[in-house]
Amino acid sequence: MPVEAFFTPCEVRTDTVCYFLEPSQLPTATQEWLIRTIGTAPNGLGITERVVRKHLQRQNLSAIVLIPGTAFGCLQYYDWLSAGTPQMWCTDVCRISPEFQHVLPGETRTPYKKPTASPLPALLSCMMDLAKQDLWVMVEVEKLVGVYARYGFQIIEYNPTLKATIMKKVRP
């Protein structure tokens, strides 16, 4: 089931972050680059090129936020809580290692420099700024609950149907 459209489709790049809004509606070349970049990044989430392609075909993603060569995460505007209105969900957060750097279309590869600090605070900040509302996350791996709590997410409940801890970060 497609997520509700939240953004106007576009690709926005700054010096440090790339935003792909409504990625299912972006040009095929951009989608293929995203499939390759996200689908081949090492992660423990089971995200493969096939999974990314399926998300794009089913229009499951509202945005992809990418800090090139460092990390990425997705936003999904969907009513996972069956509350009657969609929430903005932070999904598929992943660090990118050097061997999985893909060059953005029209750019050249830059030398990899391992970040001295976790890219998660910067990534979550970008996602919060883009969403302009509270962010939600479903945490399926118990040890990650503490990680998200360090970045301001509060536990709302454990959902046995989803087999996940639901957490929320309130927009300041």
In short:
The protein has 172 residues and is an alpha+beta fold. It has helices spanning 28-40, 49-57, 120-131, 143-150; strands at 10-13, 18-21, 63-67, 71-78, 87-95, 135-139, 154-159, 164-169. The chain has one domain (10-169): Aminopeptidase (3-Layer(aba) Sandwich), CATH 3.40.630.
Index terms:
172 residues; alpha+beta; Aminopeptidase; eight-stranded mixed beta sheet; 4 helices; 27% strand
Describe the fold and architecture:
This protein is an alpha+beta fold and 172 residues long. The protein is 24% helix and 27% strand. An eight-stranded mixed sheet has the order 1-2-3-4-5-6-8-7, covered by helices on one side. Helix 1 packs antiparallel against helix 2. It is globular. 30% of the residues are buried. The model has no long low-confidence stretch (mean pLDDT 84).
Secondary-structure map:
Layout: E1 10-13, E2 18-21, H1 28-40, H2 49-57, E3 63-67, E4 71-78, E5 87-95, H3 120-131, E6 135-139, H4 143-150, E7 154-159, E8 164-169
Parallel strand pairs: 5-6
Antiparallel strand pairs: 1-2, 2-3, 3-4, 4-5, 6-8, 7-8
β-strand amount: 25-35%
Structure annotation, total helices: 4
Helix amount: 10-25%
At the fourth level of CATH, the homologous superfamily is Gcn5-related N-acetyltransferase (GNAT)
Terminal-residue CA separation: 31 Å
Strand order of the largest sheet: 1-2-3-4-5-6-8-7
The best one-word shape is: globular
Could you report the average pLDDT, rounded to the nearest whole number?
Answer: 84
**Domain tally:** 1
Q: For the CA atoms, what is the radius of gyration?
A: 15 Å
Pick out the low-confidence regions: none
Structural class: alpha+beta
Major sheet size, sense and barrel closure: 8 strands, mixed
Element order: H for helix, E for strand:
EEHHEEEHEHEE
The CATH topology comes to Aminopeptidase
Topology, number of strands = 8
CATH architecture classification name: 3-Layer(aba) Sandwich
